[in-house]
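Annex B. Sample input.
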Amino acid sequence: MARTATRMTLNDLLPAGTGTFLRARLAETTGAILAFGAVWLAVALATFDAADPSFNVATWLEASNLAGRAGAAAADLLFVALGWAAVVPVVVSAAWAWRLTTARSLTRPRLRIALVPLALAGVAAALGALPGLLDGPIGDR
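Annex B, continued. Sample output.
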């Protein structure tokens, strides 16, 4: 008599529903990380100071940004590149975090991620076209 070898998978070892449970916890963890990132970036943008050390400001002074040197550099980079549209990543991250942590699915995540740069460019262009916002948060550099 010939015996056939059966291959044991992880699903055979774990109770039913474990995969669904783990996917839900992964989504919640991802949402919590996004929420933390949104809050950190919001603090960095809100406490931005053009005199803080960053990629284009060399100084021996400590960063006055509440998010530290990394927050000062991130805020400077976003404000220089996007102007007031720098708040878009905060809003997008917070919205995605809310959906993921409240057990709502994030439909078409690849498409959403791919459209974020387009949304950034669109908001930056729209805000740049408004009169009176040309100075922006970094002043006249």
